[in-house]
Description:
By secondary structure, this protein is α+β, with helices and mostly antiparallel strands. It has helices spanning 2-10, 26-42, 79-95; strands spanning 13-18, 48-52, 59-63, 69-73. It is globular and about 40 Å long.
Amino acid sequence: MAWRNALSKSMQELRIHLCQASEASKGVREFVVSNYAEMKKANPHFPILVRECAGTDAKLTARYDFGVEKSVSVQGADSAAVLSKLQELIKAGEKMPKSGE
């Protein structure tokens, strides 16, 4: 999948926040289980941080160059919707200035 390879090219870090037990985080948990290994395989040095905390709202946070961060809620989203939101973050990062330019 092309989006997996685009992670480290468009952002500096990805944080995934979720609750271990809530129904609203179920889609995020499924996304992590089915995609984490492949994301790390495609981006071995790219930080993908999975943050689990009871009662927290599910969200994705991307950190781009120059410390810019963008978060999107994936509360109640299914795995496909989580992927869609992640692809939005990737596209946003492709449009941002890079520190190496």
